[in-house]
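The aim of this short unit is practical: by the end, you should be able to scan a pair of folded records and say something sensible about each. We start with the first protein, listed as its amino acid sequence and then its structure tokens.
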Amino acid sequence: MASSLVNQLRVLTLNEGECLEAVLFRLEKGWLLHFVLGPSLADKNVRLFTNHPQEAKLGSNRQRYRELSWQNITGRKSDVYDNFAEVPMVLCGSFNYYFTADGRWVFIKMLL
């Protein structure tokens, strides 16, 4: 039964001005998280950061953030709605993300 949960995909839409501080996102080890841009961020330069490690062997470090790169599987760079940033959940625990829009800090949130 547990093997059916491996590689499940969860999508989290980023929106400017949306307050999700009281919302907890529960994710499991082995799942994939895709961040996508909502309409309020479509025309902005968005940079996204997380402290979830890229590999399990790196371990958890709440102070070390890494920037995620935007991917586009369609190849149409002009359509930002095809863009996503992927985070494989390689460790259990709580992790944070934040993003900037046009150089302005926007949001930080905890993932479990």
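Turning to the second protein, read its sequence before its tokens, just as you did above.
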Amino acid sequence: MKVESLFLLFLGAFFGIVGLIYWFWGYDDGGGIMLLGDQYVLKDGFSSGYGFDGLVAGLLARGSVVGVIAAALLFGFLRSGGINMEMVAGVPTALVMVIQGLIVVTLAGAAYFIRQRQ
């Protein structure tokens, strides 16, 4: 437990320093990262939803490294396929969110029934 805590502390400090370096000497015209876009305000819908995809992929993997890779590929293919379906066939990309929701509900139900059976 102590090794993991020290490792997490080290990584947090390391990436904090990296963020500080990018803040002062970033790629945005010689200084600073463009955090709020070129209008310096956050726009509605600025998030692409990758956080939700990562969370669901982690839940789907259930702590397995190979499972994380497989789940990340699954959700990457779903997202990419949803964009292509919208362009080619006119299917709304919201269908991908519905499919992801069904996967989450199915996993939750399966975990519940497995726990009840034991």
